[in-house]
Write the structure tokens for this entry.
Amino acid sequence: MLHPTIDELTEGKYNRYELALATARCARLITDEYVRQHDVAEKNQTGNKETDRPVNTMIDRELRDEKAVKVAINRIYKGIYKIDLHAEEHPEDAEELWEAGNEAEERLEEEEAEREERGEEPENPDVNPEVPIIE
């Protein structure tokens, strides 16, 4: 069985077509971020094999090791990205949403790390009001 299921992702609010479109758009943003990080890592190479780190170690592990669609589905499921049915009306906001999504993900990771340090059980919130909406 695949996890998360389509029912868990759609939450009864969206149909499969809307979910597929949102996942594809999110995956494109993730791929663009991977390419950006890869380009920055290549530019930071000095050409010295003894001191340079491999390019793949300078790229975010999630972007490097997982397929973009899988990352997109996981981010939608975790609530890092939300599906906006009216995204066609304001597509210019995609870059701002990407940055806000990264910031929200970092905050969630920091909160989880703090909870682990205190020995508390990790939370799995259904809705986070600070999380941006992705088309």
Remarks:
- The helical segments are 6-10, 16-43, 61-65, 68-78, 94-118.
- Residues 3 and 100 are 26 Å apart (CA to CA).
